[in-house]
Structures are given as C-alpha cells and as structure tokens.
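Dear Dr. H.,

I hope your travels went smoothly. While you were away I took the liberty of generating a structure for the chain from your last submission, since the lab meeting agenda had it listed for discussion. I wanted you to have the full record in hand beforehand rather than looking at slides cold. The sequence, exactly as received, is reproduced here:
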Amino acid sequence: MDYGFVAESVLPHLTLEEETMSFGGVEASSVNVYDTARSRLITHFMFRRGNEEHHGTSVQHVYTAAEVTRMVVASGFADVERFGDLDRGPFEFGNPRFLLVARRA
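The corresponding predicted structure, in token form, is as follows:
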C-alpha cells in the first residue's frame, strides 16, 4: 500500500492556502481546511477561465500510521512492514510517503 495521507505525512507539511496556478488559460486556486473532529482534510477548489468559474470540494480522510496498520491487521493480514521510501528506509514523522507491505494471514 502506498498511502500519502497518513497524519504523520500530511500534517507537518500542510499549507492552508495554496498558491494560485495558471495553465492553458485556466486559473486554479485551492484552500485547505483540516477538520480535527473528523480527522479529514477538506480542499475547496476554484477554477476560472475568463468569466466562467467552477468550484469543487475534495475530502481526504487522514489516519495515523498506527491506525492504518491496525486496519490492515484486522482485515486478515500479517507480517506488516512499514517504510518511508522505495529503498525500504524506515517510515518516520514527516516522510511524504507511507509504504506498507503485508501478507495475507
């Protein structure tokens, strides 16, 4: 499993207001809100081309590495290993990736 939304990866680098980007005549901006009561990241998007504007929302549930590990084990997997990169380096606070390898028990 390659999961980029564990709390240890997301929260240290969370930017609430992203820089506006432009590509192909479209201007895009986003604002992040972290919902502490539900442990989720809510991103509000706005896309503009000329006078036309579209808005959208994305919701990402944020679990800790320990919670993800417990869910995997509860689903019948064992021999769980956690890494922070493809070279099998240890997963540590602030790693942008959480890689989990497990075997069906």
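Two observations you may find useful: The chain has one domain: 2-104. Strands lie at 2-3, 21-23, 26-35, 40-49, 52-61, 77-83, 98-104.

With kind regards,
E. W.
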